[in-house]
Amino acid sequence: MVRGAVLAVGGVLLGGGADLGAVRGALADSGPSVYSREEWGARHPRYGIKVLDSGPDHIVVHHTATANVEDYSRQRAFALSRAIQNHHMDVNGWNDTGQQITISRGGYVMEGRRGSLSAVEEGEHVVGAHVANHNDHTIGIENEGTYMSTLPPTALLTALIDTCAWLCLAYRLNPVTAIVGHRDYNSTNCPGDELYELLPKLRTDTTARVARLRRALPPTDQARQEAAEVPEENHPTFPDVPRQERTAEYYHGPALGKQDADR
């Protein structure tokens, strides 16, 4: 298990002249605790993972389209990650887990596709399979459950805020524009009506969290946090939400498109 904030300050966030020890001390307890693939028992991918030098420009919020279980334990969280990976590899025929981050209903944050944590640390991007035609510039967070008519548990939402703040700091993203739902890119109900309605509050809460974390950075590194300009083709297109969508466990809308060369 690693601390998200430590990863953030260890790579893209800081330059060579920064006092890494001081910054790690200031932020060590600020980010989410992220469980690695080794800890939850991941399988090896079928083949190599594609890693891009530049980081993502959007954070895509999903729901897993699975049961809203009442087991909030770590064991359940690890079982969820294994089940998602098995489905993505054995049923969908993908290389590995599609998303980069998974959050259980109990608030456990776990690494998804192989190399995702080290990519955040280095300011790079592991290309996943979670939002059709936009996988090369988005990082996906799968939130356990189905949220068409039910709100996520507080533990999950708290972990989601922490995770989004960590990613925004690591990749220099503006939470107001960077945090989106799957339905903002593809025609799908994901991440569910109730979770989607919470996205404005998620952006506000993440912005406040980022501001608090930035105050812990040295002044020279605070100045480096301006977000890069996003290419027009990477912006959400807000397609219509389908009136009827296929209902199946683990299915939450289009994950791969014609522009996606990798699974």
The largest sheet has its strands arranged as: 1-2-6-5-8-4-9
**The CATH homologous superfamily:** Peptidoglycan recognition protein-like
Mean pLDDT: 86
How many structural units, i.e. domains? 1
Radius of gyration from CA coordinates: 17 Å
Q: So, CATH architecture?
A: 3-Layer(aba) Sandwich
Relative helix content = 25-40%
Main structural class: alpha/beta
Shape: globular
GO molecular function, one term: N-acetylmuramoyl-L-alanine amidase activity
Domain Peptidoglycan recognition protein family: 32-186
Domain N-acetylmuramoyl-L-alanine amidase: 44-192
Family: Belongs to the N-acetylmuramoyl-L-alanine amidase 2 family.
Break the fold down into its secondary structure elements and pairings:
Elements (H helix, E strand, L loop, with lengths): L1 E2 H7 L9 H8 L5 E3 L1 H4 L10 E2 L5 E6 L10 H18 L9 E3 L5 E3 L4 H7 L2 E2 L11 E6 L10 H18 L3 H4 E3 L11 H5 L1 H16 L4 H4 L41
Helix pairs in contact: 1-2, 1-5, 1-6, 6-9
Summary keywords:
Lysozyme-like; single chain; two-stranded antiparallel sheet; alpha/beta; 10 helices; about 10% strand
Could you provide a short overview of the structure?
The chain has 263 residues and is an alpha/beta fold. It is built from ten helices and nine strands. It has a seven-stranded mixed β-sheet, with helices on both faces. The protein has a two-stranded antiparallel sheet with strand order 3-7.
